[in-house]
Amino acid sequence: DIVMTQSPDSLAVSLGERATINCKSSQSVLSSSTNRNYLAWYQQKPGQPPKLLIYWASTRESGVPDRFSGSGSGTDFTLTISSLQAEDVAIYYCQQYYNLPLTFGGGTKVEIK
Amino acid sequence: QVQLQESGPGLVKPSETLSLTCTISGGSISFYYWTWIRQPPGKGLEWIGYIYYSGTTNYNPSLKSRVTISVDTSKNQFSLKLSSVTAADTAVYYCARHEDYSHYFDPWGQGTLVTVSS
After folding, report:
1. In the prediction, which pLDDT does B108 show?
2. How far apart are CA A48 and CA A12, in angstroms?
3. How far apart are CA B105 and CA A104, in angstroms?
4. How sure is the predictor about B99, in pLDDT bands with cuts at 50, 70 and 90?
5. E-assigned strands of B10-109?
């Protein structure tokens, strides 16, 4: 199985400041045939299902604010919230879809400082 | 806009079989993959398995011996059965959709809490 490790477990950021979440995979999720990274990011607010934010490591889902961005390749990935808003308080998960079984990171909780 | 809704008993006794159904509205079950994911209270996400509309399945090896996912295209539904449940199977169970070439999940159902307790 590909193990997804997120860091930090939690972070507190002031409103308007940048939040950075890291995700590391135990093996590369970059396909040599498609040149794509099989990595997605989700946001989960309390009592709600996860919401897809980013796929192919850096493609923003339709309707997702442009303050959310994804970057990285191979085994190391980052989700950045450029200017934290109150509504961004949530737990964020990465997920690899390069190999079965499909696996998620443990989550990063983002709070307001 | 496609919507998914999970349904089934919220309480299951230990050693019995958990059964849930996901009903798809606003779109067809055809030509997509349909997945079950669970989340124990306060914990992370675990992929259980998926089914293609044609009936092809793939399960997480950690649960494979106890899981069956089936599809009923006439009802636009797919279902999960998890046998021999224990308290460790207590979780919110989500259904979700994904595509052939990209197994990321969108949309998701709202989820249903299943508690395993006598």
Report:
1. 98
2. 21
3. 12
4. confident
5. 11-12, 18-25, 33-39, 46-52, 57-59, 67-72, 77-82, 91-98
Q: CB A105 to CB B46 under 8 A?
A: no
Find chain B residues with C-beta within 8 A of A61's C-beta: 106
Q: Report CB contact under 8 Å: A49, B44.
A: no
A97–B104 C-beta distance less than 8 A: yes
A107 at interface of B, judged by CB pairs closer than 8 A: yes
Q: Is B93 helix (H, G, I), strand (E, B) or coil?
A: strand
Contacts of A46 (CB under 8 A, 6+ apart): none
State which residue of chain A sits closest to B47, comparing Cα positions: A102
- Sort out which chain A residues have CB atoms less than 8 A from B47's CB and list them: 101-104
- Mean pLDDT across the stretch B79-98? 98
> Pick from A63, A74, A70: which is nearest to A38 by CA?
A74
Q: In terms of C-beta density within 10 A (0-12 exposed, 13-18 middle, 19 or more buried), how is residue B4 classed?
A: buried
